[in-house]
Amino acid sequence: MSEPPTADPQTVDVRDDAEANRYEARVGGQLAGTAQYIRTPGLVAFVHTEVDPAYEGHGVGGALVRHSLDEAREQGAAVLAVCPFYAGWISRHPAYRDLLYSEQSRAADGGPR
């Protein structure tokens, strides 16, 4: 069995597979990780992230999160971090916290009723 290609954040190719509702990370053409999501107008909920054990600790998960959050920002979408990996990553990278979805009830925020 051959060794998987070495991954570093610069060699991870991340793309949105909209038909499968997931982002895919590839290293040397091999699938190294995925991030499942549910998308609605104006909101992306990231529900599960999985990285092949051979690539753990090589920046694949971080590349998935950063790329997908950058795309959400470009699209003007809020993010719901259901996946613990996403929630933890965002908590360690404050520049992305503004993307987090926060529900505001009209009754609580003083808006029109």
UniProtKB/TrEMBL annotation:
List each copy of the N-acetyltransferase domain by range.
1-106, 15-101
Q: What is this protein called?
A: N-acetyltransferase
Q: Which domain of life is it from?
A: Bacteria
Task: Show the InterPro entries listed in the entry.
Answer: Acyl_CoA_acyltransferase, Gcn5-rel_NAT, GNAT_dom, GNAT_YJDJ
- Pfam families referenced in this protein's UniProt entry, alphabetically: Acetyltransf_CG (PF14542)
